[in-house]
Automatic annotation (TrEMBL):
This is Prenyltransferase. InterPro entries: Terpenoid_cyclase/PrenylTrfase (IPR008930). Keywords: Transferase. It comes from the Bacteria. One of its GO terms (molecular function) is transferase activity.
Length: 279
């Protein structure tokens, strides 16, 4: 199973929530794959991968089948049985499946094309749901779904070859300059954004620098370099220290608030590797 002994209690805790929503693999009988956060289907699959579980394990293969069962012929994923399909739904589902090793799957190839076809005029991805009302700021794309799309695309052959992705990277770099809440869902870069959150669940400094480090368009940009320096300024003895955590994950050993995280620090070393830095 490849999960280190020190994380077995975390693994067992995740499994203890497996039927919380009324069906197997952390979902509901009608396949609401993002219900029950932070123990939804999509959440828990990513936690298990973080802990070191191999994507080939039966539990994760069955979870992948469940996620794919919500895939539509046009490339979108319907994570709720009723209502609209928002770009963030497709982005999160595709991202999880890519982490599970399905980046070359024919269905995800359709999803990638759908995402490229629906890119907004500023380079990001945006829905037409205005929960906070309308204003000048809602004319922008939503930064976190855009970052999630890029997280999925880094597992594809489009990485550093598709100009549309450079456009998306530039949109996110521009947000480092804007800082204020933008997009219909009001993603900003305030106090919460600057707190290091792990595991990656929300829009924050750590996942921002991590995902962008895979894209050549970002690596030499001053805005990315500033973000990376901000992340490094928060490290202690070369380790990532978790500053923010969802309360329901507070007892997990791999992501304790206020403590260095070995698994989080591995992602920092991935950033350095992407930048060609040896430390």
């Amino acid at each position: 199973m490849s999960i280190d002994k020190q994380y077995l209690s975390d693994f067992e805790a995740i499994l203890s929530h497996r039927y919380d929503n009324g069906a197997d693999y952390w979902t509901t009988p009608d396949k609401r794959l993002i219900k029950g956060s932070p123990f939804s289907t999509l959440d828990c699959v990513l936690y298990l991968l973080e802990l070191g579980m191999e994507p080939t394990e039966p539990l994760l293969k069955k979870s992948a089948e469940l996620i794919f069962s919500t895939w539509k012929e046009d490339g979108r994923f319907k994570l709720y049985p009723k209502g609209s399909i928002f770009p963030c739904h497709t982005a999160h589902a595709a991202n999880v499946l890519c982490h599970l090793g399905y980046g070359s799957d024919a269905r995800l190839q359709k999803t990638f094309q759908h995402l490229l076809d629906t890119q907004y005029t500023d380079g990001g991805w945006r829905c037409n749901k205005f929960s906070f009302g309308r204003g000048p700021e809602t004319q922008y794309s939503n930064p976190f779904p855009t970052l999630t799309v890029l997280n999925a695309f880094r597992f594809s052959d489009y990485l550093n070859k598709e100009p549309a992705l450079d456009w998306a990277v530039n949109f996110l770099l521009e947000h480092w300059t804007i800082r204020k809440p933008i997009g219909p869902c009001h993603y900003g870069m305030g106090t919460l954004f600057m707190q290091v959150e792990y595991p990656f669940r929300n829009y924050n400094l750590f996942v921002y620098t991590y995902v962008l480090s895979f894209y050549n368009r970002a690596k030499e940009d001053n805005r990315f370099q500033e973000a990376l320096k901000a992340l490094e300024s928060k490290m202690v003895d070369g380790q990532i220290v978790v500053e923010r955590i969802v309360p329901k994950l507070a007892k997990f050993s791999f992501c304790k608030k206020g403590k260095p995280s070995v698994l989080a620090t591995r992602h920092y070393h991935e950033i350095l590797k992407n930048l060609g830095i040896n430390r």
